[in-house]
Specification:
This protein has helices spanning 10-22, 26-38, 45-57, 61-73, 80-92, 96-106, 109-121, 128-140, 144-156, 164-176, 180-192, 199-211, 215-227, 234-243, 252-258, 261-264, 270-276. It is mostly helical. The protein has a domain at 1-107: Serine Threonine Protein Phosphatase 5, Tetratricopeptide repeat (Alpha Horseshoe), CATH 1.25.40. Helix 4 packs antiparallel against helix 5 (80-92), helix 8 packs parallel to helix 10 (164-176) and helix 14 crosses helix 17 (270-276).
Length: 282
């Protein structure tokens, strides 16, 4: 690629690294990783996780932990796949106690929060995706105060700002905790913060009003959503069916949603809709 003056990107390098790891030529894979840095092509979580997995499969947990440290030092949060590879490495070495401790760590939200705190207090910079994962987990665990504080910290960050996903997660969490009016105010604040709501954002706030038996607000938002080219998801349809009397299922707004692009391409049945209504954020 380089001889033909075609510049390889991180995806191309990751493919080569994965191939070398499969061929058990980890040293060559490491050379490629160093080459990426020299060429100012920053390795990503996939690059590091692939190497962690390769070292662990060879039983070299120490090498895997070195890669893990480099990964964190360069500002990338290990994901579940990274930690699972490390856990498997411990199991291969029959270090079951360490594997169990790591399993407990990745299975607990407090562990994730601790890791986030370490990074946040260091010279490294957290990213919006990290905030979003933790906020989503906190809301789903019913830890409202911590979820609110996480969003506030993100909003105050000098280098980061909440994105559409961050707003949507928080709107959904507030709705599920019963703070629908506050959720609506935050939803309206998105545009003022140059963060346009997407289809998921609209559906989430509509879910909130429908769950709290406020069809007028919900229908107004549905009209607005459709006018912007967005469609109802299965949860919105399910809640609307539950709220509207059977003799009103030919209501214009319901028919408009039923004929939307998303509904045309998905099978809609009562079982599917009921199940969808219990799911979380889009």
């Amino acid at each position: 690629m380089k001889d033909e003056k075609i510049q390889p990107d991180v995806v191309a390098y990751n493919s080569l690294i994965a191939g070398l790891c499969i061929s058990s030529t980890i040293n060559e894979a490491m050379k490629l990783l160093n080459e990426m840095v020299e060429r100012k092509i920053m390795p990503d979580t996939v690059s590091y996780s692939t190497l962690v997995d390769a070292f662990c499969k060879e039983g070299n947990v120490l090498g895997a932990k070195v890669i893990l440290k480099v990964m964190i030092h360069r500002g990338f949060l290990p994901d579940v796949i990274t930690y699972t590879s490390l856990m498997n490495g411990y199991c291969l070495r029959n270090e079951l106690d360490k594997a169990r401790k790591l399993f407990d760590f990745i299975g607990k939200l407090d562990g994730a929060l601790a890791l986030f705190q370490v990074i946040d207090n260091s010279s490294l910079k957290s990213n919006v995706a990290g905030y979003n994962i933790l906020m989503d987990g906190l809301w789903k665990a019913g830890r409202e105060k911590e979820a609110r504080e996480m969003f506030s910290r993100l909003s105050r960050d000098k280098f980061l700002q909440p994105d559409t996903r961050a707003y949507t997660i928080t709107v959904d969490g507030l709705c599920r905790q019963g703070f629908v009016d506050e959720a609506y105010d935050l939803f309206r604040k998105m545009e003022g913060d140059s963060c346009l709501p997407d289809s998921c954002s609209y559906n989430v706030i509509i879910h909130g009003f429908l769950r709290h038996k406020d069809p007028l607000e919900a229908i107004g938002l549905i009209h607005e959503m459709v006018s912007k080219g967005f469609s109802a998801d299965a949860t919105t349809m399910s809640l609307l069916i539950e709220l509207l009397p059977k003799n009103q299922l030919d209501h214009p707004i319901f028919q408009k949603l039923l004929n939307g692009p998303d509904m045309k391409t998905h099978k809609i049945g009562s079982t599917d809709l009921s199940a969808a209504a219990t799911q979380g954020t889009c």
